């Protein structure tokens, strides 16, 4: 279902962006707020997709249900990955 949403909205948003590029001003306060809100929404969607669709499916799989040691190792790996990405984000 998500693929349908992305396939329908992507061309619409590209056309909207092209149309709005003629009136966009970089230093306008409302433009800065809009860009901030859109960045926050896209970051929230990415976090949701990563946590709910990817990690939850992996952590609820049959391989991890049987082994507590494997669960702990996977949680540590996920935390290390999040920490590494946070360090990289400092320079982005």
UniProtKB/TrEMBL annotation:
Keyword Glycosyltransferase belongs to the record: no
GO molecular function: metal ion transmembrane transporter activity
Chief localization: membrane
Keywords on record: Membrane, Transmembrane, Transmembrane helix
Keyword Membrane on entry: yes
Membrane topology designation: Multi-pass membrane protein
Top-level taxonomic group: Eukaryota
GO CC terms, sorted: membrane
Protein localization: Membrane
Annotated TM spans: 31-51, 72-91
PANTHER family for this protein: GENOME ASSEMBLY, CHROMOSOME: A01 (PTHR11040:SF159), ZINC/IRON TRANSPORTER (PTHR11040)
The name this protein goes by in its record: BnaA01g35010D protein
UniProt organism field: Brassica napus (Rape)
Gene: BnaA01g35010D
């Amino acid at each position: 279902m998500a693929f349908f949403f992305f396939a329908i909205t992507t061309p619409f948003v590209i056309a909207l962006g092209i149309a709005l590029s003629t009136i966009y001003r970089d230093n306008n306060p409302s433009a800065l707020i809009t860009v901030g809100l859109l960045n926050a929404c896209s970051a929230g969607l990415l976090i949701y997709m990563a946590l709910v669709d990817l990690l939850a499916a992996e952590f609820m799989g049959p391989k991890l249900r049987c082994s507590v040691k494997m669960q702990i190792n996977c949680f540590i790996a996920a935390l290390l990955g999040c920490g590494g990405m946070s360090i990289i984000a400092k320079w982005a």
